[in-house]
Amino acid sequence: MKNFTLLLLIFLTKVCLTSCKDAKQAPKEEPQEELPNIVFILSDDQAWTDYGFMGHEHIETPNIDKLVQESHTFTHGYVPTSLCAPSLASIITGVYPRDHMVLANDRVLPGDDKKGKSAWKAPWRAENYAPVIENFKKLNTLPKMLKEKGYLSFQTGKWWIGNYANGGFDYGMTHGDPDRGGRHGDYGLEIGRKGMDTLYGYIDLALEKKKPFFMWYAPFLPHSPHNPPDSLLQKYLPKAPTEYIAKYWAMCEWFDQTCGELMDYIDKKGETENTIFVYVCDNGWVQNEDNGNYNPISKQSPYDYGMRTPIMFKWKGKITPKLDDRTLASSLDMVPTVLDLLGMKRPEELDGINVLNETEQKNREAIFGEIYNHDFYTVNESLKYRLIMTDPYKLIVPDKTNRPNEKIQLFNIYKDPFEKEDLSDAHPEIVEKLLNQIEVSWNQEPQN
After folding, report:
1. Is the pLDDT of residue 320 over 80?
2. Whole-model pTM?
3. Domain Sulfatase N-terminal: where (predicted)?
């Protein structure tokens, strides 16, 4: 019995030692990488001046003002073009319109002017645009890049490129079917104006699946039709010179309210510290006092009222808040900056920089712009303006063929932010230098 007990103790000791050794040698499980959610907030048709934090006398934007306080905010941000379809396409791809080829809102072919240009719902317009969409589907977009990290991507709001899936989104509100009214957003245009439930549903889906998400929030706000809630309209009517202005001002605050609702919902879900917020406006807008149209110095123009926008990056605890009123930023920087924040490799074709990187900021000499006809055909036949923005000068170059009666204009955009004084005649040497920089940019090999 003693021998049996001794043998049992020896056996148990060996088992214990072997088990402990195996446990020590067992590979440790790698901790799963916690990836931040990404939310792009895109205003639609809003001047760079029309925010509380930018000093507007009457427009109140408390939620965006709060976002500014929590973000690295560039007040001298620009979009590369002052029209929604090409601007949005540049935001999602990170390349200039001449690279992604969504040059403007509608594509026309020779002879189409005889078909009734004002008929936006005419079948030939959708047929003409189909090749643009097919080409775009081949391009790299942020949602496609994020699939590598397991992101779910959601589209809401404005989207010109047919179905949401054409941009690489997993889910979306825009079907893009021209036979059902699809042109620039269809059901997506309801977000914000008719509530936020669909967007909330997408966020809940990602959290349920335990997936990081990319949210494209591009509501049809403050874009016309300017039909704000009556409570907001009544607030601004006594302050505005006309009802048209009051309606536009009210739309700006309505948009701000929806931004607050979105950020509050993410906070309610406990995701604020794990979410990167990026803000931009697709193009500017100056409301006419005596009708519902925009002033031609804004949308579709080469002036800052059409192209300038604040750009914000917020990641609580990771990005230090700063109000930067000097550094030039571009909406083309949004994709590379986000990729760097995630530690992802940047595709070579991207035209922007990581604008939060001080070295890249200092090495940047200029950002560029290009504007085409609303109804476009090819780059050469539709180009209206090429632009370069530097510190402190901006050069506007009208196309010699398509805008033969216009002259080159030079502005100091820091001393003269409303572009009142053309300096081109006084500084021909600066004009020549900036023209050369534009030519170098355009003569580079195509990226796509």
Report:
1. yes
2. 0.91
3. 36-344
